[in-house]
Design a protein that fits this description.
TIM Barrel; about 425 residues; 17 strands; three-stranded antiparallel β-sheet; ten-stranded mixed β-sheet; globular; alpha/beta
């Protein structure tokens, strides 16, 4: 096992850097959305821009496409369309986006991904996505009772039936999509049930994301009004409390373990789950596909509707504003000391307990957004879900080691299922 340094420096980052490779998450409609999901951390971002309805113009879109393609030093460029809900801009906006991509691509290969809540998908949208080969991430938290607990529209109505109908249209058109599911308090104790349901929605790729948020409730009569809609805030904000939809550490760990126990016996090589893939990647010593499992981050910035660039989707706060793509060179922003420092701080801000943990090289401390707990010795920066991660890593260790060995022998990791059945 390699020696672990206590601190990474800017010089370390510069030494390890190769061609500029990064992902931009573009929010052409900002936080604008047709739903009102309780746990959405992005709905309140409209306050940064004075509460105005954000929309990227076609002129700004063309400039963004050209700038992004020019800044990428790799042969392949991926456009990641996010929100809010990106479909609220209408299909003609994305037709123009594809037109501009083809205009400025040169010799580079262009890919498109788009994350959607699925409720606005029509046959026209589905045909467009299939024809232009967009990879969609569709948000669906599980069975209707789980999904509809926190994912409702602005009138308070459930949305699961509309999402399922959108998925049906995508499937009929031959569009490619993955399922994106949060793990929240409504998911606890229902891991296998959620997994089986999502597996039946037509995608072999499932991406789970734990929800752990802090909120501030509006005051009424000198007391927090817990019947009113709270505002999602940074954990350090005065009056912040853990949101009721946050998953507990143990609930998170059991959710993953329950799914893994079934998956490792039945679905290896057939269904791909982000937590399992990333854990196996770290067992094998290769880069995981998700930044939260990597040693450092900073390669996934956000571009707002007006061109403002932020360090990360989870850190769209004024202090993490890097600049603006219409005023600054994008390559300079991504190589800036502020962004590099943000990335290596994922490693450097960890408490000693993490650096000396036997699971450190599997989780690398998880997402910095969730690091608001303190260790027994009083050090800050401990991931709030540490106990859950530890449960999962211990439960999966034997199978992960076996799959790593199979890969090193040039064999399919799916052979692990034979071991489990014998």
């Amino acid at each position: 096992m390699r020696t672990i340094k206590d601190t990474l420096t800017l010089q370390d980052a510069e030494r390890l850097a190769g061609p500029l490779a990064f992902n931009l998450m573009l929010k052409p409609a900002g936080s604008l959305c047709n739903l009102d999901c309780a746990y959405c951390y992005y709905l309140d971002k409209a306050e940064i821009y004075g509460g105005r309805e954000p929309r990227m113009t076609v002129e700004e879109l063309e400039r963004y496409v050209r700038t992004y393609i020019d800044a990428c030093e790799m042969d392949e460029v991926t456009f990641n369309w996010h929100g809010g809900e990106p479909l609220v801009l209408g299909i003609d906006f994305y037709r123009k986006a594809v037109e501009f991509e083809k205009k400025y691509a040169g010799e580079k290969k262009i890919h498109n991904t788009l994350q959607t809540n699925g409720t606005l998908v029509t046959p026209e949208w589905a045909d467009f996505f299939a024809r232009e080969r967009f990879l969609l991430g569709v948000s669906m938290d599980g069975t209707p009772d789980v999904h509809d607990r926190y994912r409702r529209d602005k009138g308070g109505a459930p949305t699961s039936a509309r999402v399922i109908e959108g998925l049906r249209k995508l499937h009929a058109a031959g569009a490619e999509y993955n399922i994106m599911a949060t793990i929240n308090s409504a998911s606890e104790g229902k891991g296998l049930q959620v997994y089986q349901f999502l597996k039946g929605l037509g995608s072999d790729f499932l991406q789970f994301s734990p929800v752990v948020e802090h909120v501030v409730y509006p005051m009424r009569g000198g007391k927090p009004d817990k019947h009113a809609r709270p505002r999602i805030v940074d954990p350090s904000e005065e009056g912040a409390v853990l949101a009721p939809w946050s998953v507990s550490p143990v609930g998170f760990g059991r959710f993953l373990c329950d799914i893994f126990d079934y998956w490792v016996r039945n679905d290896v090589g057939r269904v791909f789950v982000n937590f399992f893939d990333c854990t196996l990647a770290n067992w094998c010593g290769v880069q995981p596909g998700t930044c939260s499992f990597a040693e450092t981050c900073g390669g996934n910035a956000v571009v707002e509707h007006n061109g403002d660039v932020y360090a990360c989707d989870h850190f769209v706060y004024p202090k993490y504003l890097l600049g603006n793509i219409y005023q600054d060179r994008l390559s300079d922003l991504m190589r800036s000391q502020a962004q590099v420092a943000f990335g290596i701080d994922k490693r450097n801000a960890l408490p000693r307990k993490c650096l000396r943990c036997e699971s450190f090289q599997l989780c690398h401390g998880g997402c910095p957004k969730h690091r608001f707990n303190t260790t027994d010795s009083g050090q800050t920066g401990l991931n709030a879900l540490c106990e859950g991660y530890s449960m999962f890593f211990k439960r999966s260790a034997g199978a992960m080691l076996r799959m790593r060995n199979l890969i090193m022998e040039g064999k399919a990791p799916a052979l692990v299922m034979m071991d489990r059945r014998s």
